[in-house]
């Protein structure tokens, strides 16, 4: 099917004929128990569940405009045409949306990330969560939050969690229908993001995760340990036990970096300054300021703190990089496009 004539009563073809457009905003999330390994790459099912905090800083905003006359999708990221690889990833995602919408109409996607792209500050999470919500609306899919989480997962696993506000657990699940994120009650948490290097990582999370699973002799141990850490983390959240939440968070992060370092060829996401940030956080704890460090697949470090301590923690880490204090943020949602018509 290449062209579609407007036909009376064909409600599901409105998207193809009306240049429908929608804009969504989504925030990055930082995992306290990390997702690092897939058991099904096509369906994007993780090898273990994970838990994160969706932030209230560094939003991604994405506008999807259906363009029935176009022969391919166009993807503009931060005001410039995205790379072929990045555009291909968006097209593969939109193909899933189109399949469900019963259309082949292409789209123009414009997105801006407030966080650096591909630097371990979860741009793929906010990016694909914003794309899932905007594309679902532009293509007129009927999707509730659970369905949007499952859909976002197909673009980037961590994006399943950015559909959800605040603390989210992503259930590993057993199939497409059971692998989604949902909210979890937790005590008040703040995060201090230390931006150490904004450069795009040399090895994407996707590629590094695959390499780790294929080559690290520790991979199986990492997955079973993470499943246990998630169980312990859910109990700690329920108990409102900040100390236990923090300990599990820091240990799980260091174990993830250890398993990544043990891949062949090895991958090292932490820079010397990142290690200095982990050391500084440990020193703060020894002095009685309770914070715990984590880092995703990149050199930027995030300290977990009680809200009342966040400013003191940020001050103590400011010599290592630009600090940003974040709290729990909203789930991905539609917004009015700036100055445009929906
Ligand atoms: P990060 O640590 O930033 O999540 P990843 O390696 O997981 O890094 O993913 C980076 C990739 O995610 C980008 O190269 C691009 O393909 C995709 N991405 C990032 N931001 C967006 C966005 N706003 N819309 C669509 N895709 C995005
Ligand atoms: C270290 O979700 O970016 O941030 O699913 O292949 O797109 P893909 O990978 P991605 O991996 C995130 C890895 C992590 C840990 C986490 O967010 O749980
Ligand atoms: Co990512």
UniProtKB/TrEMBL annotation:
Residues 192-320 form the Mvd1 C-terminal domain. The keyword Nucleotide-binding applies. GO terms for molecular function: ATP binding; diphosphomevalonate decarboxylase activity. Keywords: ATP-binding, Lipid biosynthesis, Lipid metabolism, Lyase, Nucleotide-binding. Residues 1-21 are annotated as: Disordered. InterPro entries: GHMP_kinase_C_sf, Mev_decarb, Mev_diP_decarb, MVD-like_N, Mvd1_C, Ribosomal_Su5_D2-typ_SF, Ribsml_uS5_D2-typ_fold_subgr. SUPFAM superfamilies: GHMP Kinase, C-terminal domain, Ribosomal protein S5 domain 2-like. One of its GO terms (biological process) is isopentenyl diphosphate biosynthetic process, mevalonate pathway. Its EC number is 4.1.1.33. It comes from the Bacteria. Residues 26-181 form the Diphosphomevalonate decarboxylase-like N-terminal domain. GO terms for cellular component: cytosol. Gene3D superfamilies: 3.30.230.10, GHMP kinase, C-terminal domain (3.30.70.890). NCBIfam families: mevDPdecarb (TIGR01240). Belongs to the diphosphomevalonate decarboxylase family. This is diphosphomevalonate decarboxylase. It comes from Pseudoclavibacter endophyticus.
